[in-house]
Amino acid sequence: MFIKSPCIDLTRHSKIWINPDGEIPKKIVERLKWQKETRPRDAITLFVNRACEDKSNSAVESLRACGVKIKIIELCLEKNEKQDDPFIIACFNKALDIAKREKNLADQVRASVRATNVLRLMKLVQHEGLYSDNDVLFLKFDTASLPTPYLFGQYEGDVNDVHLFGVAINAPLTTDYFYTRLVEKMKKPWEEEITPDEFEPPCGLYLIPDEIISKIQFGHLKFAEIRDCIITGSDQSHHDITRAKKLLNFEEDSLLDEAKSIVASQEKQYRM
To answer: Its domain of life (predicted)?
Structure first.
């Protein structure tokens, strides 16, 4: 029996945008369009909640028109074609319901982030590609994959939050082990087993099984193949909600401008 060596595909990407009010900021749309234009051969999938498709339909259609695949989270989970564990789905649905019920902006954003923290680990997202936050941009590079079973990255010096996460979907033994351990940890985060109704959506690394964290190389900057090929920002920080909302709605996008400048320099070097 041939066993595939686990690897992370760097040409397939998953993004998530959850907003109970249905707003998709122009900045998010423009970054995704630029990403597709810069890496046209890459596949990009954006997962959005149903309210975003309803209230930001023009943004959704403009992304589809430039080649970004759009998936509606609620519809995907109803079909469950990737066969995510019912317990994980129930936990995510609880997290999403909390976000929809919150009236205070800060609480709503935090709840949406925590729902994203669950969703990004699920088979539904990982089968579409490597997950990254919307303030992570991929530049031009030739490396197509990384020979590692897991990949996650965080901002330099920020050890509690994950902004890049991937499981080697090409290797069934890796994925079976990861999802078995993930469900075990979610069902029994402490000494006693819990139900989905008792699940409290955590942040950062806390859902990832401890023994897997110990095997993962911390931080995407430690992978030489992509160290200089990713730039990150911090305008999705949920530690300062007011600042984050202002940054997301600014007309100017310093991160995207920086990415464009770097890619222009890369292309100039290629032509020389």
So the answer is: Bacteria
